[in-house]
Amino acid sequence: MTVLETTNDLYAEMRAIGAQARHAAALMARATPAQKTAALQAAAAAIRARGAAILEENRIDLADARQHALSAALLDRLALDDKRLEAMAGGLEEVAALPDPVGKELARWRRPNGLDIARVTVPLGVIGIIYESRPNVTADAGGLSLRTGNAAILRGGSESFHSSRAIVAALRSGIRQANLPEDAVQLVPTRDRAAVGMMLTLTEYIDVIVPRGGRSLIERVQRESRMPVIAHLEGVCHVYVDRAADLAKARHIVVNAKMRRTGVCGAAETLLVDRAAAATMLPPILADLHQAGCEIRGDEEVRALDPAAVPASEADWSTEYLDAILSVGVVDGVEGAIGHINRYGSHHTDAIVTEDKAAAERFLAEIDSAIVLHNASTQFGDGGEFGMGAEIGISTGRLPPRGPVGAEQLVSYKYIVRGDGQVRP
């Protein structure tokens, strides 16, 4: 078979997947809240029942990833265990318990001519979701699509192909048990990267694209997509320790923000410290980080306080390490921190540690990021921690949805107008 014939076959397969999703979306739009809840609960039960099989498929992915020398951070993102499987199933149950976001009346008014107008939420339709590494995104994305009455076409990373396939089988089992169309959740059945480009052109079938991964993936999708994009850009997240910070609180927050899980998008990548407090606050914070196994890349002032720190390059300030590495800099107060973060950050998640309410409020108001925290770890930048049950990403753009994209963010709305014979003069 020639390359052209192979490409034509793949394109035909992608169009077939799109057509199946479009048909499923029409049926899902009519599904009752009880049906969608039942599908999610059955899917959670299926993940638990098939746990051993899913973990076996994950071991295949991990072995392949090690052969291709994936970094420790990416291996951590890819790895599943009993605890993460239970979190996956629990997340589906949390989504099942959420209020149904479809059919909600957002506003209603009556015009002087008697027309009754209502704005009511409806599903988006078919969502194409392209992501890397993390197999739990497969369950989150599929579950949120079910809760919102959408159909999902999932294109997971090639490194998580076997894991994602097993998880999708469990999701489809739950959907089937609820008498809903199992094609409401489909996985692109190939690792061929050409499938991504084809997805981005299927405007007849896909209504919105959600990319979740590194900068190169996001930029490619934004450049090539012919449908709207909800982008989850990389997480260059910051913690700023102000001169009025409680030192014990700052030490605890910084270590957690960086080291709890270094491979998640909410992990801190840069620590900024107020110049007025650097001499007293930085040494114990850096000692904690070194003890936790973190490499420090610092500016000149940081290296003067910490001989173990290596010099930070210009590129370090805008790097998402996803590893036990932290760039550390000294800034002139809250104004310097705001300037640095708005210049080098990715508009994802940033935090200030301070007991000065005025400084905190200025930081919260002027940092141009989707999630901004006061006296809390950046690792709370997550839809599950926001009570959304799950998310399919953190939208870092300025147009809505922004921040964690959960069930309420995956619906649109339409206007329903009721009259009694009115015509326009």
Please describe what this structure looks like:
It is built from 14 helices and 16 strands. The protein has 425 residues and is an alpha/beta fold. It folds into 2 domains: 3-232 and 400-417, Aldehyde Dehydrogenase, Chain A, domain 1, CATH 3.40.605.10; 237-380, Aldehyde Dehydrogenase, Chain A, domain 2, CATH 3.40.309.10. The strands form 4 sheets. A 7-stranded parallel β-sheet has the order 10-9-11-8-7-12-13, with helices on both faces. Helix 3 (51-67) runs antiparallel to helix 7 (161-177). The longest helix is centred in the first third of the chain and has 26 residues, at 3-28.
Briefly say what this structure is.
By secondary structure, the chain is α/β, with parallel strands linked by helices. It is built from 14 helices and 16 strands. Strand 1 and strand 2 form a beta hairpin.
Q: How would you classify the helix and strand content by structural class?
A: alpha/beta
β-strand amount: 15-25%
The CATH topology of the largest domain: Aldehyde Dehydrogenase, Chain A, domain 1
Q: Mean pLDDT, rounded to whole units?
A: 94
Shape descriptor reads globular
CATH superfamily of the largest domain: Aldehyde Dehydrogenase, Chain A, domain 1
The CATH architecture of the largest domain comes to: 3-Layer(aba) Sandwich
Strand order of the largest sheet: 10-9-11-8-7-12-13
Poorly predicted ranges = none
CA radius of gyration: 24 Å
**Residues in helices, as a percent range:** 40-55%
Q: Tell me the name of the CATH class of the largest domain.
A: Alpha Beta
Report how far the terminal alpha carbons are from each other: 65 Å
* Total of helices: 14
Largest β sheet strand count, sense and barrel closure: 7 strands, parallel
Output the helix-strand order: HHHHHEEEHEHEHEHEHEHEHEEHEHEEEE
Strands, total number: 16
List the domain count as a whole number: 2
